[in-house]
Amino acid sequence: MKVKRLLAGAVSAALLAVNFAIPAVAETTSWKFDFGSADDVADGYIAVPADTNQITTGTYGFLGIDGYGSKLSDRLDSFSMTGSQKIELTNGRTNASSAPYNDSVGSTVANYPTRFALKVNNGTYYRVTATVGGVDPSKAANVTLFSEKRHPIISQKVIPAGETYTVNFSVDVETVYYEKSSPVGNYVDDLLNVVVVGDNSALVSLEIVKVPEKGTTLWVLGDSTVCDQSSAIPYFPLQNYAGVGQALSKYVPSTVAVSNHGEGGLSAWDNNHLANVSANIKAGDYMYVEYGHNHKTDGTAGYLSCLLYTS
């Protein structure tokens, strides 16, 4: 298989996928989560009160709420914590009259995120419906919603006091290769992540449905100008880097998932990341490629010599 002319930009690809899946949890096709008090849960929904710890349950819950968040890899959702930092969450309310929209879970500190994670099987694809709002129904909420490794879905959305906002998006949970950070090798992702951050921001409900026949994915390859950059906590929107590929999720249709395989320090000689994507891309998917920044030593000639690959 030949992938020619790796030019910066969006390049459509129609290649056969060689799919692999590493079992992580029992096969489940859908989940409905109702955030807030366990005493007020909608029929058919799973209660997720503020003290639900994903590390403890092993299936779903929040990250960073136990004082041990600094021990978690930023590869989980591109947030990093230091020392004994702890995210304080609380059960909140909205002005809706019935569950799952009448309560919520959010951080008590404006610049601390609410980090929800669900353990899933690697190599699987999902449609997600997220409803967000505030912790305090008497105040407007300013909500930024991220999926996966800090991929923005909505940014600084102002939601009137007591109201909620619903958005749809797609997620493709895939293995990502790392060679510039430790540990080197394949990171077998098995978490679906949804994060909200901002003044009075909160998660109200989530509906997650597995797509048996994978939907469309936009695969991203490139260097630090493209990759999923990590953010420290507290999170300040204008003080955190984000690669171009990391931000594409905000601009693609809700039926397209973004799978970012960029990594800082790579040149267009990159083979391992390309091989990983080539093994999983399928007909109807797209590829975005952006290299060049790290060709300081071999210059234009070195970059041009990389534009033909055989794998």
Key terms:
4 helices, disordered N terminus, five-stranded mixed sheet, mainly beta
| Low-pLDDT sequence parts | 1-26
Strand order of the largest sheet: 4-3-17-10-13
Helix content: under 10%
Strand content: 35-45%
- Helical segment count: 4
Shape: globular
The oligomeric status of these chains comes to: single chain
Class by alpha and beta content:
mainly beta
**Terminal Cα span:** 6 Å
Q: How many strand segments?
A: 22
Major beta sheet summary = 5 strands, mixed
- The averaged pLDDT comes out at 89
Helix/strand order:
EEEEHEEEEEEEEEEEEEEEHEHEHE
Radius of gyration: 20 Å
Brief overview, please?
With 311 residues, this protein is mostly beta strands.
Structural features, described:
It is a single chain. By secondary structure, the protein is mostly beta strands. Helices cover 7% and strands 38% of the residues. It is built from four helices and 22 strands. It has helices spanning 54-57, 244-247, 272-278, 299-304; strands spanning 2-4, 9-12, 30-35, 46-48, 60-62, 79-80, 89-93, 103-107, 114-119, 124-134, 141-147, 151-159, 165-173, 176-178, 185-187, 191-197, 201-210, 216-222, 231-232, 256-260, 286-290, 308-310. The strands form seven sheets. The chain has a five-stranded mixed sheet with strand order 4-3-17-10-13, with no helix packed on it. Strand 14 (176-178) and strand 15 (185-187) form a beta hairpin. The chain is globular. 43% of the residues are buried.
